[in-house]
Amino acid sequence: MSTLLSFRDVWVEYGDRIIIEKLNLDIEEGAFVSVVGPSGAGKSSFLRLILGQEGPSRGVITLDDTPLKPECGPDRGVVFQRYSVFPHLSALRNTILGVECEKAPVLGRLFGSARRAAQEEATEMLTAVGLGHSLDLYPAQMSGGMQQRLAIAQALVKRPRILLLDEPFGALDPGIRADMHALIRNLWRKYSLTIVMVTHDIREAFTLGTRVLALDKRRHDPHAPHRFGATVVYDLPMRERAEASSEENENITIDVKRNN
Amino acid sequence: MRWVNRQVGRGGRVLLGATPILLLLLVYIVMAASRHAVNPADKILPLPGAMADSMAALLFVPDQLTGQLVFWADTLASLQRLGIGLGISTLMALVVGLALGVLPPVRATFGPLVTGIAVIPPIALLPILFIALGLGETAKVALIVIGIAPVMIRDIAAHVSALPKEQVIKALTLGANSWQVMIRVALPQAMPRLLHAIRLALGPAWVFLISAEAIASDVGLGYRIFLVRRYLSMDVILPYVAWIALLAIVMDAALTFLSHRLFPWAHGESH
């Protein structure tokens, strides 16, 4: 596996507050990286760095050996815990949006055969996440789990190099969360995705990831807690277990119980 | 049962809603009748019959000077001014509000200017408008626009910039540029708010319309009211006020209906 994303001596500082210090990290293509850590340990900053929402204060982040611009782009897809889908568009049109933005820079809409092609592609992706029968529903008519499925389909239609998940299942109830775990694993395998998932749920991090990163501060000054930043303190490869469990997970289909 | 839990049915709502209105009408008629019992020529509280007589003249008899049906000419002139003023304001709110809300450099440049214009009492600008634009239609429409556009612009800008940041980021990761964020993410979500802003602006728009017509005009609902005031013609003023109220209610209801019809996703309907 080749290195897809690499951090070289990356620091994030706001004034004299240090959030992330001296982060060196390589993420291989096809990895499913779970990121855990206590609150305030820079998990969100880490995600924002990859997303391009902000740039590092020092150091370099490279994607495919080219430095990342500090701006969000279509090579990195994202699913947030909430607000990931557009409330004014139906499921199908939410998913087509990515194609429309690329191919219709002025109108932002496609017509005729281009539109039909985009619709087919979007329908296929929605079917893959289990929303094949809910193409015309608006997000307000969907359950939380369905909205997250839609958000995943919306991101995957752009075939991003990296899919970023920011506590994507945090607001879902346990049964639906299990379905979503099976779904994301299947999609990861089917589309050979590279996924970086930030989560609060340690169990989720270990069951899903092929690699678990724990972010925390190495040093702590009780008189100046902001003087030291967080970095990767544990980097645990889970590959063997992931491969082993993949055998028994083979028969998991998307949303067997049809409960969301 | 506690009062907060007492739900009123459809029939009950009509009955309860009509009661105070009918009561008020009854009180008026009783008071008017008692005044007329003392002085049959009383002009302050005219009886419905007198109102109907004088309104019939305005409704159906052409004016000797202009040959127009006065009531309809007034209504048409006022609605035209109101419509043009509201239309221009709405367009400005949409274009300027959207740009202010979505694009930080535009907000930094024009935000203070819009805020500055919004805090000026529009009536204080009326003399300037009359001096600069003359006493014709332009000045009246301009007063309405200056009166309501800044508030609407700020409302739309605030609504757009309050959209969840995640939505904009999501759109960017889907490959959208600034323009596409504006027309595909911000604009559709600003539309229901825009209709709401028009509804709220209707009240002030009427105020500025009547003010402008009262000061310099030769036709219009506000002009007529202020004209007949000289003759204590309450029998014309009261029906005119009622007519203005009716027009305002119809416009408000139409906007609400339109919003539910065009943007069902914004009203939690079809759930």
Automatic annotation (TrEMBL), chain A:
Q: Which domain of life is it from?
A: Bacteria
Q: Name one GO molecular function term.
A: acyltransferase activity
PROSITE patterns documented for this protein? ABC_TRANSPORTER_1, ABC_TRANSPORTER_2
Task: Using the record's annotation, list all stretches that form the ABC transporter domain.
Answer: 5-242
**A Pfam family name for this chain?**
ABC_tran
Print the keywords alphabetically: Acyltransferase, ATP-binding, Nucleotide-binding, Transferase, Transport
Gene3D superfamilies tied to this protein: P-loop containing nucleotide triphosphate hydrolases
Q: What is this protein called?
A: Lauroyl acyltransferase
Q: Tell me which species this is from.
A: Novosphingobium guangzhouense
UniProtKB/TrEMBL annotation, chain B:
Gene3D superfamilies per record: MetI-like (1.10.3720.10)
State the membrane topology: Multi-pass membrane protein
Q: Matching CDD domains, A to Z?
A: TM_PBP2
The places in or outside the cell where this protein is found are: Cell membrane
According to its record, what are the GO cellular component terms? plasma membrane
Q: Which positions, given as ranges, span the membrane?
A: 12-32, 44-61, 82-103, 109-134, 141-162, 194-216, 236-258
Q: Which residues form the ABC transmembrane type-1 domain?
A: 79-259
Matching InterPro entries: MetI-like, MetI-like_sf
Tell me the keywords, alphabetical order. Cell membrane, Kinase, Membrane, Transferase, Transmembrane, Transmembrane helix, Transport
Q: Which Pfam families match?
A: BPD_transp_1
A single GO BP = transmembrane transport
UniProt-recorded Gene Ontology molecular function terms: kinase activity
Q: Which domain of life is it from?
A: Bacteria
Q: Which family does it belong to?
A: Belongs to the binding-protein-dependent transport system permease family.
The record's section on PANTHER family has: ABC TRANSPORTER PERMEASE PROTEIN MJ0413-RELATED, ALKANE SULFONATE ABC TRANSPORTER-RELATED, MEMBRANE SUBUNIT
Q: What is this protein called?
A: Lipid kinase
**Source organism per UniProt:** Novosphingobium guangzhouense
